[in-house]
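step=encode ok
step=design start
structure_in=
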């Protein structure tokens, strides 16, 4: 199997602000012990638009999406490539504002009940396009909604890897946005896949 890997970073909103925030993520990607075959950064109108455009620009078998305010451990790409499955998810090192760090080991469970797969998962580009990419109509939990479509419609094999995704915990992040009805979106997404 072709082992080419592309890593994308996508942003939207205030371009200057997000380009500055994305710099450390891009440095962590370019500093990998096993270099990605492609690195693509796109700033778009919406996050879904930017991510879909970035992945369209890849010419690799495997894709990894890194949030602009997160990092990849230096062995991330090589650890992901050593894993099994067609949708591979990492361990997560959460970094809090006060400097505390917490390593979260694999907690594979029922994907219909909760999203145990962070955005930094590695997946095959063909599977991504088979299910239509990120859905621009989903304002929250869009990665979970994508994983569910890949699992249900493309039949991906979900497996953990030893890679470590460094997630900078943001209490003001989109998943805590009070203007979005979190419970409604969670239930709406889940209902679509329970059958």
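sequence_out=
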């Amino acid at each position: 199997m072709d082992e080419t890997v592309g890593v994308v970073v996508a942003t939207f909103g205030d371009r200057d602000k997000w380009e500055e925030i994305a710099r450390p993520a891009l440095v962590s990607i370019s500093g990998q012990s096993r270099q990605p075959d492609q690195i693509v950064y796109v700033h778009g109108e919406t996050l879904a638009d930017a991510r879909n455009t970035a992945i369209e620009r890849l010419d690799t078998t495997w894709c990894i999406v890194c949030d602009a305010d997160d990092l990849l451990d230096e062995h991330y790409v090589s650890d992901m490539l050593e894993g099994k499955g067609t949708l591979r998810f990492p361990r997560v090192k959460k970094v809090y504002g006060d400097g505390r760090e917490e390593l979260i080991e694999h907690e594979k469970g029922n994907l219909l009940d909760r999203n145990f797969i962070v955005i930094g998962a590695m997946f095959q580009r063909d599977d991504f396009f088979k299910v239509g990419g990120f859905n621009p109509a989903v304002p929250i939990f869009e990665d979970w909604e994508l994983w569910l479509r890949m699992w249900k419609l493309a039949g991906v094999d979900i497996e953990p890897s030893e890679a470590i995704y460094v997630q900078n915990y943001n209490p003001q992040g989109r998943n805590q946005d009070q203007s979005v009805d979190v419970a409604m979106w969670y239930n709406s997404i889940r209902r679509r896949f329970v059958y």
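step=design ok
step=annotate ok -> The helical segments are 15-30, 47-56, 76-81, 125-130, 142-153, 182-193.
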